[in-house]
Amino acid sequence: MGENKIFVISGPGGAGKTTLVNRLFGKKDIQESCLKAVTVTTRGKRPQEKDGQDYFFVTEEEFLKLKGKGFFLESQKILDNYYGTPKLFYGWAKAKGKHLILCIDVKGGMCLKKSLRAGKISTIFIAVPAKAELYRRMGKRAEAKGVIKKRVELAKEEMRFSKYYDYLVVNKDINVTLQELERIILGNKKLKGKAKRRK
Questions:
Q1: pLDDT value, residue 150
Q2: Is residue 52 part of a domain?
Q3: 54: exposed, middle or buried (Cβ count in 10 Å: 0-12, 13-18, 19+)
Q4: In-domain check, residue 172
Q5: pLDDT the model gives residue 68
Q6: Is residue 194 domain-resident?
Q7: Which domain holds residue 158?
């Protein structure tokens, strides 16, 4: 498998990155070679989400205490909420000899890309075929209109960061996208074809 790496998967809300990461870990090869980091957040839990599985949900006070203790590998404030990746997942991945997969926002991704040496991290940006489709997906979420409006504006800003990522994967078909992600993470030894790397 080569050197253990961190794979950062980012993209605007509605691009399907969380669903893709969850589906990835339903695959045996990914389970055997990778570990998924669970983000700590202060935002409210959505109906379908499970604490400790999708996110660790904490209060702002609890989050800031953890941050002050150096608990996070990276942390960001997005809109009105905090998000952070616990360092312990990085330690667990190294101890198990596995790659670490992070599903985080673009600011967190850029922060890690700057702080980690070249070759240790690969960044993957998930996009959608058209902006209209992205906004349609976001509009279906069970959130207040004001929150959705803020998320749409954030999505516009996040899409500008795609050019700084190592890979750009357009999520037209979830099964095709999953294959592309597997090729990037596992390499071409196990999967036929070649993933497109950004120039």
A1: 74
A2: yes
A3: middle
A4: yes
A5: 98
A6: no
A7: 6-186
- Residue 16 belongs to a domain with what CATH number? 3.40.50.300
In this prediction, the residues of the chain whose per-residue pLDDT falls under 50 are: 1, 188-195, 199
Residue 44: its pLDDT value, please? 92
Residue 190: what pLDDT?
39
| Of residues 102, 97, 95, the one with CA closest to residue 121 | 102
Tokens representing residue 106 in the block: 């673009």
Q: Which amino acid is at 186?
A: L
pLDDT confidence of residue 40:
98
Q: 3-class SS at 127?
A: strand
Strand residue runs (E) in the chain: 6-10, 34-36, 39-41, 55-57, 72-78, 81-86, 99-103, 121-127, 167-170
Q: Is 144 inside any structural domain?
A: yes
Which residue carries 């992070």 as its tokens?
102
Strands annotated E in 26-80: 34-36, 39-41, 55-57, 72-78
The pTM of this model reads 0.83
pLDDT attached to residue 141: 56
